[in-house]
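Annex B, item 7. Sequence and structure tokens for protein A, then protein B.
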Amino acid sequence: MHLETLDESFTICQVADYAQVDWSRNYVFAAKSEAENSLVCPSDCVPANVTARDDGWRGFRIAGVLDFSLIGILSRYAMVLAEAKIALFAVSTFNTDYLFVKAENFDRALACLQAAGLA
């Protein structure tokens, strides 16, 4: 497993519903609860029915399929970033984890993860 950088700029937002989401795009993540419809997507495809948004995020992918029996993978990355006082937004899929940091912290986050042997 190794860390890959994602080239897009991302937006973390809330939407009224998922009807306008462009599901054909890569790196579109959704979560629904009784209180909200959350969406992480490339900034150039934020749907028009957005109700709240936070732009300016960059992403990393932990490359490789992560077995569900593995313990502490995400926490290692989170700990390094927390020690560097870099806020993190994480998304997990069936196969792997994605880490998002504000764009102004991206290079510093990458340097910290590299120094820790995680990139």
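Protein B:
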Amino acid sequence: MSTASAFVPGFALSSTEGALVSIAIRVEPRHLESLLEALARLEFPINPQIYHDAEITFLHRDQLHRDQYEEPVATTLVEFPAYHRRLDDVYLALEAQGFDRDSVLITSMLDQLESASLSEPAGQKPSWTVRTRYRMPAPKH
């Protein structure tokens, strides 16, 4: 089984289990409990951060005209760190509960720590990236 195509091989933070990465999973609020149950079945401890008012950006590409545009979308986002060697375990647990690999974004933990907003996703550009996360409810304007 292959690992995510959205992986930055930045080895500044690594161990014998590989590079430390940040795993972000976008989920519909009604499926959040199922996602957390899937993650609870992993054989390594995780401490997920849940962002109910996150915003991701879908990157749409028209190969014929070589156009690209971005579509910001509000979502619930679950994030946690893990080592690269554990990615297949995460994917298997998610797929066992019916979650799609396309709902997962893997980035270098060093990039995650250096940036409040992930503007450059890893590897072969996935179809979405994280724009903002809120630990508190989003400010009302």
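Comment on protein B: The beta strands are 14-15, 18-27, 49-62, 67-83, 104-108, 128-132.
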